[in-house]
Structure formats: structure tokens, C-alpha cells
Amino acid sequence: MAWLVDFYRSPLAKKAVMAVTGVMLFGFVIGHMAGNAKMYLGAEVFNHYAEGLRTLGAPLLGHGQALWIARIGLLGAVLLHIWSAWQLTLLNRRARPTAYVRRDLINATYASRTMRWGGVIILLFVVYHLLHLTFGSVHPSFEQGNPYHNVVSGLQNPWVSAFYIVANLALAFHLYHGLWSMFQSLGWNHPSYKSARRIFASVFAVLVAAGNISFPLAVLAGIVK
Amino acid sequence: MELDAKIPSGPIHEKWDRHRFDMKLVNPANKRKFDVIVVGSGLAGASASATLAELGYNVKCFCFQDSPRRAHSIAAQGGINAAKNYQNDGDSVFRLFYDTVKGGDFRSREANVHRLAQVSVNIIDQAVAQGVPFAREYSGLLDNRSFGGAQVSRTFYARGQTGQQLLLGAYQALARQIGTGKVRMFPRTEMLDIVVIDGQARGIITRDLVTGKLERHAGDAVVLATGGYSNVFYLSTNAKGCNVTAVWRAARRGALFANPCYTQIHPTCIPASGDYQSKLTLMSESLRNDGRIWVPQKPGDDRVAGQIPEGERDYYLERRYPAFGNLVPRDVASRNAKNMVDEKRGVGPTKIGVYLDFKDAIGRDGKNAIEARYGNLFEMYERITGEDPYSAPMRIYPAPHYTMGGLWVDYNLMTNIPGLYAIGEANFSDHGANRLGASALMQGLADGYFVLPYTIGDHLARHLGEGLVSTDDAAFQAAEEGVHRRTERLLGIDGSRTVDSFHRELGRLCWENCGMSRNRAGLEAAVARIPELKEEFENDVKVLGSAESFNQSLEKAGRLEDFFELAELMCYDALERRESCGGHFREEHQTEDGEALRDDENFQYVAAWEFKGQGETPTLHKEPLEFEYVKPSQRSYK
Amino acid sequence: MKLTLNVWRQDGPGDSGRMVRYEMPDVNPDMSFLEMLDLLNEGLIEKGEEPVSFDHDCREGICGACGVMIDGRAHGPLPGTTTCQLHMRHYKDGDELTIEPWRSAAFPVVKDLVVDRAAFDRIIEAGGYVSVNTGSAPDANLTPVPKDVADNAFDAATCIGCGACVAQCPNGAAQLFTSAKVSHLGLLPQGQTERWRRVRHMVATMEDEAFGSCTNFTECEAACPKGISIDFIAQMNRDFVRARFRDPEADD
Ligand SMILES: Cc1cc2nc3c(=O)[nH]c(=O)nc-3n(C[C@H](O)[C@H](O)[C@H](O)COP(=O)(O)OP(=O)(O)OC[C@H]3O[C@@H](n4cnc5c(N)ncnc54)[C@H](O)[C@@H]3O)c2cc1C
Ligand code: HEM
Ligand code: HEM
Ligand code: SF4
Ligand code: F3S
Ligand code: FES
Question: What is the strand order of the sheet B406-407 is part of?
Fold first, then answer.
């Protein structure tokens, strides 16, 4: 264990941690999106799916246990991801104490330049989102055990939907750079798939954005009700 | 003064081995008792510092750049020779030796050159082991090319960046020793004087270029690896910082300066485009393999190249040298270009240049083939001139490039001041009156890796137990005060002209009178004019800022002052050498066809000059040269 | 042509520095950027003002000494070009240029446009070499190196240590420089013995030198006058993680 702590001291290792936790979060986002897509199949299927998550692993694991394990993993990943991002951001600030009077970037994409703020938006969104749909504390008509209703009624408020859309756009940008960047951070750049990395990142960024944004739009349009 | 070259006896191929056996050794435990000062971190200085530290000596290494990796050696392009005979094309140590002696126009020491050829093979091994990425064949084995008209392929190269890669290799070795603490590196530090006590070199005075602080460093031996002095011409292919200061300071302390007039002019450089030009860029000589050199037949022809019909062009090298054509040696090509310009047949906006035309080659082999061969050079040309050499001919002109002259050293690379060594381009040793392409890198590394580390031991072993001289010694104090007074004086002049304006003027004077060709009248005029110009400089130069801070003008002013004195000696030497040989062409001494005419009977010697003080005539000491293995012959390229 | 320059002037490390405006009434388009600065300096000296300090030596793009930010770009607007190789014909009459030193905590300003890049040397001293003493090398052709490996190593080895990558990187990271050296030696058979140790030590030193960390902005690659590829950064990252398991010393 001591070596891990020691290893983690290095910014290079922190980057590796960001990449690994980023992949975990990415995995969740994809799975979550696929699950959420069930809302197109109606309330029953959707609610059943949500319940299904809780009985996952039965009978080995008790009700909700698998979900909790996943949640702990996820929480850990989020914390590590953010912690590393925070530390690296501080380091990077210190590395350039005097700003240029004039600055012109050549290659850096918009996505790469907004990783930090994008991350903050995602974080704010997740906090809100949990209060909204998991705990219901900011949901005007939250019904425990009826996620379908919670989603639909929640997203019918155009302001809420707008925030969901903005957050998911931010996520898409985050993924557009993050998914490509992750290969660099982990050193996966073999010529045989090097050119595919950008495509991979673009496809999934668009996919996640399109999928997740479709939900509020569908609700607002009355397709899902 | 007795000049003893200390050449070992015996047959030439045994001299070095015998000598190594005869030399005294310093036992490993004693090596750490010696401090060696190495000034310079180019190929010669870096390789010497690293090797001496590996052996166990304590080394202090100095350079004026911000990092040892930036020494001028980094700019060498073409390659490095070695008698590996990997191509099985008849090369051998003896052939490399032979070619080098002949190439030097019989003005170098046979014993030194043979040793150089011998150790050349080890250099390649060493560099490869360090990770120098030389060009390779598909077999994974090293590639070679033939260079500078050599008849065998013995040149190892790393794209067009051989100097860079070799220097990085030496620098890495040096960095390793800095990491272990065996070498203390002093970047941005300039050596401004050498301390000689009881006739022995005992230390140096340096200036920290950032803080301006003067420092005293004591050493059991001092090695100068400070490069060449081509910048005496102001415009040259050398880096801007190259200077003669370290070497000249040694000369002022009694070290003999050998053959200062042997300078090499490279024929294929991009011509200066205006008065603001700060340096010249070398284009690889290989361009002459395909390019045809010409000028208009009519003097003062102002038409652009494309409008001059074939019949009104003069392919003067092909005309004068049907056998070699455009591939005549560097000095011949250079001199002929100068003649064309002198005849007012030069081309380009400044009329100082000749065409190097690829039209026929492109017509013959296609643009793609030419691009594959010279693409990067064409690009470099276009970048600098803004002209496209695929559609209009290139313009080229000769430029000062290398200086064969330097501090006189014996076979051990020691100057006439015991304990003071000179290696690399800073010494005069191995190239005679003319250096072959790809041989300077070889010599710098031979000196630094394989020669000096042995020979210095022989000297140190004799001084075991003496210990370092204290830097409080009166000689140190006096030297430091001298340096201090000099900087204060330069800062106090407060005249009206910039350092560069004087340097340009000196450069032009040297170029016109002691450049590609020289004659008595010109040299006499230069010898008279240089001290005058120096005096103007001393009364009218304007150096701002203070001595206690980073002050680039002050650095330049100090260097220029030394260039003045060197320039005078260079012209003096050229005047004295009433023959033509290698890079030194005296117009009075040429064959009927206008070729260099040596005078072996009277001038087969090394001219080692003793500086006698400002305004005094320097004293000439002669080291006669003997040729036992390569018999002097006359060059011919008809 | 006429140009206006805004140049960073700073007397020394202790001074806070400021931008100073200079009019250049007569710049020749064939001048190099550094020759343009020479011209500025000649004029300043004649007026009795201290000239602008800037680093330079070879003036042909190989020594790595030169380098300033020109209008917010390291080495100016042209790709694959050092400051000394930039010519004024790329500007037009009336242009206004902003010239600043490299900005990085690891590269403190010495004076005006001159910075101290010794941190790069310390990275190399930490392991950027093959430990082979002079004289102990085997015959050069004993170890064949496949041409593609040699070429790839060469691409990394062309780094001139100018520091533009750090200057241009929004994070002030030295990844491109360090990875170039790590990869140059890490790719060649001669560099294998020390491969894992080297990457650990060089990265550790890089991190001690107050450089930032890479977030894969790719600015460095775009600014690098030698076109060093960020592929080498990936390779260094991979080697660094592998070194944890491959280098026996990693546990101390
Ligand atoms: C453009 C060009 C291309 C070339 N191509 C080739 C080629 O292809 N093949 C070949 O064999 N040769 C070539 N040469 C020649 C060759 O590069 C040089 O002769 C050789 O590199 C000189 O090495 P050096 O170690 O003696 O000196 P340098 O590399 O010049 O090093 C001098 C060192 O001394 C230091 N120094 C100088 N003065 C002082 C002082 N007062 N105080 C402190 N430090 C000081 C400098 O900082 C530097 O570290 C070329 C030369 C040029 C100009
Ligand atoms: C679902 C949520 C998230 C996913 C899928 C995700 C994914 C990723 C990925 C794959 C990377 C690339 C890592 C690399 O370059 O190796 C990354 C980088 C980054 N993430 Fe996230 N992330 C998420 C949430 C967050 C949050 C909440 C924050 C901050 C509050 C954040 C901040 C960052 C930052 C700053 C980077 C760039 C760090 C760097 O490259 O040094 N991310 N993210
Ligand atoms: C429009 C898109 C989204 C919809 C419709 C949606 C819907 C939901 C719903 C209904 C739940 C509650 C499930 C339950 O309690 O059974 C939930 C939980 C959650 N969502 Fe979302 N979500 C969306 C986007 C996102 C995004 C982009 C993220 C992350 C970046 C995210 C992260 C989470 C998390 C962390 C939980 C808590 C999971 C748990 O531990 O129970 N969601 N989401
Ligand atoms: S990687 Fe490129 S930009 Fe960075 S120091 Fe090397 S050459 Fe300069
Ligand atoms: S610009 Fe900086 S962020 Fe990384 S890819 Fe280059 S070091
Ligand atoms: S001055 Fe050498 S790279 Fe620009």
C-alpha cells in the first residue's frame, strides 16, 4: 500500500488515476444512459428496471447491496477523479505564476480548455440530480419507488430540463477531450489504433450527449409522459 | 624558445601505443586529488570533462551559453569520419591518415594525424553506445556516405544533424558526471583570463554572466576547448557567440598561437542580403553534386536568371576545371566565386553571389528526385531568402567557416605553458592548412575522449602532492584586477558607436584583405589599419549598463577587443607566409593556371607566434614539419 | 516597413518588469526576427538606452538558445520554426507585435527576454544518458538497430531544448521535452538497461522543478520547432507506470 501512496505523489500517476476513474465514470454514464432509455418503453419497464438494479446479485447479495457496492465504487472514483483534478489544477496554476500579456493558443480544442469548468458543471449537476431524482428533496412531487413519475414530472419543468441539457452538453465536451486524453495518459497510442482514438472519443461524446439530451426533450415534447 | 612537439619515436602506427605505455599513470586513488578546469562544453570540452570525471578527476567545466548542450558544435551538419571500413571499400586507418595529411596540404604533423585516424574508430563505438542515432541501413547496421570528395564512404551521419547528435551524446555523458558531482558545471560563465604561476597554468578568472561576479578557480591543469575564431570576420557560419577570448587571453599570457592565417572558407553558403545580416547559413556541400554553378558572361548584367539565355551564361567551374567541374575542392570553388564577383559578374540584389542552378538536374531526374535528395535544404533556403529554388536558381557565396589555426600544442595537446592544454578547434593540431569535411567533429571527440584523458595524466603524475594553488595568491589577485579594470574601462568609454558596428568594420577589413585570397598590399594595409580601428574602438565604443549585471553588450565588447588583436596577428601570419597552401591563398604565389603554389622549401613549418604586447611585433617560432609517410605533392583538379 | 513592438523589459529577477513600446520605422522584410531585434538594439544604444537582452547563438534553428513569445505564441506564428528562423517578410507594414519571455515558474526571468532554463539540464542529469564510460563500448555494429526504431528514436532526439513546449503549454508542463529524451534512449537497445530507472528519475526531477502537469492540450507539439510528437508523452506515461513494476529500485 505504501508504494501506492508514494506512486500517487507523482502528477503522472495522478493522471493515470484520473484516466482510470474517468473510464469508470464513463462506464457508469453509458450504462446509466442505456438504462434511462428504457423510459421510452413506458413506466412499467422503467420502474421494473430501477427495481431490478436493487435486486441485482440476488440471492447472493441482499436487497440493494449490489447497488451500494457500485455506489461506493462510483463515489470513490468521483472523489479520486476530483481530488486529482484539484491537485493538478493547483500545480498547473503554480507552474505559470505570471500570465502572458498576449496569448494565442494554436491547437488546444475548446473541449480541452474547458475540462475544469466542465467538470464543475457536471459536479453541480450530479449533486442537484441526486437531490432531484434519488433523494427527491428538491423535487416538487417526488414519489419514492416511482422513478418514472419522478423523471417525467421533474423534466416537465423547462428550467430543470434546460439545466439537464446544459449539463449533458458539458459532459459531452468533457468526454470529447477526456476519452481521447485518457489514451495519452495511459500511454495507449499504438499506431494500429492511434487514429481511432479521436473517433472513439467523438462518437461516445455525441452518443452520450444525444442519448441524455433526448430524455428531457422527449418529456418536453410530450413523447414520454 | 625551444619548440618541442614531443613526437614519440618509432614507426608511425606504433607511436601512440608506445607513448601510452611510456606515459606516467596516476593511480586511481590519486586521481581524486586533482582538479582539472575545462573551458568549453562543445564536442571537445564535453567529451573531455565527462571522460576525466569518469577516470576520477574532479572537473570544473565552463561555458558561456546557458547550457552546455548549446555549444557551437551542435550546428555541424554533414557528418563525422572514421576509418571503420564498414563498407569494405578499401578504407583503412592509413588511408584516412593519408587523405587528411594530403587534404591539409602538407602543413600538419604526421604523428598527430595518424593518431587521429587510429582513434576515429573508437569514437563511433563510443557514440553509438551512448545512444547517438546515426543513420542506419535496413539491416540495422550503420550507414555511411562519402563526403567532401573522399573516394571511400567513411562518413557517419545523423540526418543533417550530426553535430547535434554527437554533442548531445557528449553532453549526456557530461550530465551524468554532473549528476554524480564529479563535474561542476558553470554555464553562463565566461573565462576572461588564465592564471600562470611560475610558468605553470594554475587557474582561471571567470565572470558570471548573470550576476557579473568575477571568480577565481584554481586547477592542477587547465584545458581550453573553446572552439574557433571564424567570427573575426563578423559574418561567418559560426554561432554568434563563438569567440577567441579564452585562447587569446592564453596567448597574452605566453601561449603560442599557431598558423592563425589558416582559415577555411566554405563555398556554399546563403549570401548576405543586406547590412543588417548577422550571420551566414551554410548549405550542405552535397548540393554541388547536382547543381550547376554559373554567372552571367557580361559584367553588370541586371537581368533575372530566367531571362539570361543559355549562351550568355558562364559555367565557370565546368569551363576551367573540366575534370572536376562543380565538384572542385572547397577552396578552389570559393576563390573562383570571389573572382566572378570581383569581375562584377555577381548575381542577386547585392551582386555578391553566384547561381547554383538545379534546372538541368530537375529536367533530368524530375522534381521529385531532387526534392527527395535536397528537400530540407531547399526548404531552408526558401525560409531564409523567400525564394523558391525549384523555380529560380539558388544564390550562394563563400563564407568563413572553420579555423585550422589555434593554440600551438605538442603531441600531448599541451601548449608551451605547462599544465595548459588546448583541444578541439581551439588548437592548431591536425588539419594543417585545410580541413577535410567531417573531420572537425572527429578531431574534437578524439581529443576529448581518447587523447587528452591519457596525456593529461602524464603531466599530473609529475605534480602529485603539490596541491592546488590558493586563489588568494597574488597572481590570482592581479589577474582578477586586470579583468576588473578592463570591464570598467570598456564601460567607461561612453563613445558613440555600438560594438557591432566596429565588429562589422573589422570583419569587412579581414574579409577583404585576409579572406579567400590575400596579397601583400592588402595584408600590409590591414596590419596597419587594424590597430587604428582598435584605437577608435577604445575611444568611441558605447557600452551601456553595468558590470554587475547581465550585460550582453559588455560581453561582446570584451570579445571584440580580443578579435582585434587576433586579426592583426592573422594578417601578420598571412603576410609572413609567402606561399599558397590550403585555405591560405597568396595571389603572388600561384601556378600558371591560378592554383595554389606551395613553397615546401621555405615554408614547410608550423608558424607559432608569440604575442609580445600591444603594438609590439610578435615573434615567430618555427616548428619544422617532416613527411616520412606521405610525400608532398602538388594538387591538381584540371 | 514600419512596425510597433511591445517588448517586455525587466532589469533582473527582482524587478517586476513592464511592457515598453518601440516604433520601428524601417524594418527590412528580409531580416530575421533576431536581426530586427538587433536593429532595435543598435538604435537603443545610440540613444543611450540599454539594449533588450535576448538569448541566441547559432541563429539557424539548432542550438535552442533563442525563443520568445511573439503575439502569444512561442517562437511566433510559423510552425516548425525557431525565433531565429522567423523572417520579417511574414509580417506586414503597420503590424504591432507583442514580445514576451517564456513564462514558467521553472524558467525564472534573468533579464528582459532571457530566462533560466537550467531546470532542463537537471532533468537530463537525473538520468538522460546511457551509463557507458569512455572506452568501454563494444564495436558499433555489434548491436544492429532496426531502421524504423532508429528513425523513431531520432525523431525524439532532435529536440533542441528550447523550452517552447513549456512556454506554450497552458499548464507550463515539461512533458514534451522530458518525454523526448526518455523516448530517444528508451527506444534504442543501448538504452534498455536503464530504461525504467531513467524514466522514474527523470520524471521525478521534472516534477521537482515546478513544471505543471500535462492535460493533453497538444499546444507543445504545435509550438515545437522540431515537431516533436506528443506520442512520446504517451510513451513516457506508459513507461512510467510500467517502471513501477519493472524497476527493482522502485520500492526504495
Ligand atoms: C555550420 C557548420 C557546420 C559544420 N559541419 C561540420 C561537419 O559536418 N563535420 C565536421 O567534422 N565539422 C563540421 N563543422 C566544424 C565543427 O562543428 C567544429 O569545428 C567543432 O564542432 C568545434 O568543436 P569544439 O568543441 O572545438 O568547439 P565548440 O563546439 O565551438 O565549443 C566551444 C565551447 O567553448 C565555450 N567557450 C568559448 N569561449 C569561452 C570562454 N571565454 N569562456 C567560457 N567558455 C567559452 C563555449 O561556450 C562552448 O561550450 C561545422 C561547423 C559549422 C560552423
Ligand atoms: C461522469 C462524470 C465524469 C466523467 C465520465 C469524466 C471523465 C473524464 C475522463 C475520461 C478524463 C480524461 C482523463 C485523462 O486525461 O487521462 C477526465 C479528465 C478530467 N476530468 Fe472528468 N469526468 C467526470 C467528471 C468530472 C468531474 C465531476 C470533474 C470535476 C469537478 C472532472 C474534472 C476533470 C478534469 C479537470 C479533467 C482533466 C484532468 C487532466 O487531464 O489533468 N471530471 N474526466
Ligand atoms: C437526462 C438524463 C438523465 C436522467 C433522465 C437520469 C435519471 C436518473 C434517475 C431516474 C435516477 C434515479 C434512479 C433510482 O433512484 O432508481 C438517477 C440516478 C443517478 N443519476 Fe441520473 N439521469 C440522467 C443523467 C445523469 C448524468 C449525466 C449523470 C452523471 C454524470 C447521472 C448520475 C446519476 C447518479 C450518480 C445517480 C444515482 C445512482 C444511485 O446511486 O442510485 N445521471 N438518474
Ligand atoms: S520538445 Fe520541442 S519545444 Fe520542447 S524543448 Fe524540445 S525542441 Fe523545444
Ligand atoms: S501543451 Fe501541455 S498539456 Fe500536455 S500535451 Fe503539451 S504538455
Ligand atoms: S539561435 Fe540557435 S536555435 Fe535560434
Answer: B406-407, B257-258, B605-610, B619-624
CATH number of B265-401: 3.90.700.10
Residues composing chain C? 252
DSSP reduced 3-state for B201:
strand
The DSSP output letter for B67 is S
Kindly report the CATH number that applies to the domain delimited by B474-599. 1.20.58.100
**Per-domain boundaries in chain C:** 3-110, 118-246
Q: Does A223 touch chain C (CB under 8 A)?
A: no
Q: Binning pLDDT at 50, 70 and 90, where does residue C251 land? A: low
Residues 154-193 of A with CB under 8 A from C: 177, 180-181, 183-189
C-alpha cell, A217: 426533450
* Residue C208 touches partner B, C-beta closer than 8 Å: no
| Complex-level ipTM beyond the 0.85 threshold | yes
Rounded distance, CA B331 to CA B243, Å? 23
- In this structure, CATH architecture of domain C3-110: Roll (3.10)
Stated length of chain B: 638
What is the C-alpha separation between B517 and B94, in angstroms, rounded? Answer: 32
Query: Which residues of chain A lie closer than 8 angstroms to C96, CB-CB?
Result: none
Q: Is the pLDDT of residue C240 over 90?
A: yes
Q: Do chains A and B touch (3 or more CB pairs under 8 A)?
A: no
B366-376 burial code (b ≥16 CB/10 A, e <16): eeeebeebbee
Residue A22's CATH number: 1.20.1300.10
Q: How far is C208 from chain B (nearest CA, A)?
A: 15
CA of B183 from ligand 5 middle (Å) equals 33
Report the amino acid identity of residue A83: W
Start-end of CATH 1.20.58.100 domains in chain B: 474-599
Catalytic residue list of B? 330
Q: Does a structural domain hold residue A39? A: yes
- CATH match of C118-246 with 1.20.120.1460: no
pLDDT of residue B594: 80
Q: Which chains are adjacent to chain A, needing at least 3 Cβ pairs under 8 Å? A: C
Low-confidence residues of chain A: pLDDT under 70: 1
Please give the number of the atom of ligand 5 that sits closest to the Cα of A184.
5
> Nearest Cα to C63, choosing from B194, B112, B76, B430?
B76
Can you tell me which residue has the cell 570598467?
B488
Q: Would you say residue A4 lies in a domain?
A: no
Closest ligand (CA of A224): 3
**What pLDDT shows up at residue C163?**
98
Of the pLDDT bands very low, low, confident and very high (cuts 50, 70, 90), residue B147 is: confident
Rounded distance between C-alpha atoms, residue C149 and residue C179, angstroms: 16
Query: From CA C21, how far away is CA C8, in angstroms rounded?
Result: 9
Ligand nearest to the CA of B46: 1
DSSP B205-247: EEEETTT--EEEEE-SEEEE-----GGGGSSSSS-TT--SHHH
Question: Which DSSP string do the residues of B366-426 spell out, in sequence order?
Answer: -HHHHHHHHHHHHHHHHHHH---TTTS-EEEEEEEEEE--EE---TTSB-SSTTEEE-GGG
DSSP E strands, B31-188? 35-39, 58-62, 80-81, 155-156, 183-186
Q: What average pLDDT does this structure show over B73-101?
A: 95
Question: What are the start and end residues of each CATH 3.90.700.10 domain in chain B?
Answer: 265-401
Domain range for A43? 12-97+109-220
Residue B488 is predicted with a pLDDT of 96
- Cα(B285)–Cα(B560) distance, rounded to whole angstroms? 30
The sheet that has B214-218: what strands, in order across it?
B189-197, B200-208, B214-218
Domain count, chain A: 1
**What is the CB neighbour count within 10 angstroms for residue B260?**
29
Cβ atoms of residues B106 and B432 within 8 Å: yes
